[in-house]
Amino acid sequence: MRYSKLLFLPLFLVILAGCSGVKTYPAMARAGDTVAIAAGWKQHFSRNEIVVTITDANGITTTYLPGDPAVRAVVNLYPDPVSSIIISEETNQDLTPYAQIYSSSVNTNITSDDKDWWQTSVFIDLPSTMATGSASINIGSVSSETSSTTLEIIGGTGTVENFQTEFGPLNPDQLASMERVGHYIISFTGSVIPYGIQVELSHLPDVNNGGAGKVYVVNTRGDLKNINWVDDGASTLKVLLTPSQPKVLDNMKDFKFYVAGGIDGLIVNNVIAVDVNGNPVSGVVASIATNN
């Protein structure tokens, strides 16, 4: 399915946006238009968590509360897995000029060496009564993440984007299906990076066993590590993490993975870590955070 060109405009800005947003697309818009905001690497931006405040050139403020339909979608956009920035980083060569510098900038200044990169893009319908001139857009989440940007409001009557495809416009449910759903984030710490990790987790019964949801394990970077997992549906999930190449991963953060599917009550039972020779590596600890 081909989506509106507006949906993919901010993709490359994963290497440009840091703690706050830096750009709207387009940079100029009419009152009533739909704009896309490259908001940066946000962990807790969703339509049900963010408050959007728009102030026009006359100081008139419009506030969109969580769930407001004028916030059309909050979508995470990822770099192409075979983009130069990814391949140049992993092969230690510049396949295009300065690609490794750009990669290092993302890791150092934005993600603190977490290679799970994305650009959070927020699609907003502007108020139809905005004055012409410079306007500001500020976004805040319940977890205190923020993003802010400006755009120029020009004369004319705006048009709400319908995200046209060859099969017709996307409806709100289709837009929502591209957003993140609630999930658990499983990450690891330890003074020595192991070769492999096995983690056993427990949870409440899934929908097939009288409970809710169904386990689905998500690998954040399949080019870095392999994930093998099995879940009995009743209580136990086992996950085995090993590098995609026969070498130790660069960072403990590379072992991070997600558990999604609406399962409840996920906790860690035990962790077994080994080096490349199969010897135990002590001190490896798994932690769970929730992202709703």
Give your account of this protein's structure.
The chain has 292 residues and is mainly β. It has 2 domains: 5-78 and 118-176, Sandwich (Immunoglobulin-like); 183-291, Immunoglobulin-like (Sandwich), CATH 2.60.40. The chain has helices spanning 84-91, 99-109, 172-176; strands spanning 23-25, 28-30, 34-40, 50-55, 61-64, 71-77, 119-125, 133-141, 146-154, 164-165, 168-169, 183-189, 196-202, 216-219, 225-231, 236-243, 257-260, 267-274, 285-291. The strands form 5 sheets. A 5-stranded mixed beta sheet has the order 2-9-8-4-5, with no helix packed on it. Strands 1-3-7-6 form a 4-stranded antiparallel beta sheet. α1 (84-91) packs across α2 (99-109). It is globular and about 70 Å long. The two termini are 27 Å apart.
Q: What structural keywords apply?
A:
5-stranded mixed beta sheet, 2 domains, 292 residues, 38% strand, Immunoglobulin-like, mainly beta, 3 helices
Q: How do you describe this structure in short?
A:
With 292 residues, this protein is mainly β. The protein has three helices and 19 strands.
Mean pLDDT across all amino acids: 92
Strand content: 35-45%
The level-1 CATH class of the largest domain: Mainly Beta
Shape call: globular
Blueprint of the fold:
Elements: E1 23-25, E2 28-30, E3 34-40, E4 50-55, E5 61-64, E6 71-77, H1 84-91, H2 99-109, E7 119-125, E8 133-141, E9 146-154, E10 164-165, E11 168-169, H3 172-176, E12 183-189, E13 196-202, E14 216-219, E15 225-231, E16 236-243, E17 257-260, E18 267-274, E19 285-291
Parallel strand pairs: 2-9
Antiparallel strand pairs: 1-3, 3-7, 4-5, 4-8, 6-7, 8-9, 10-11, 12-17, 12-19, 13-16, 13-18, 14-17, 15-16
Helix pairs in contact: 1-2
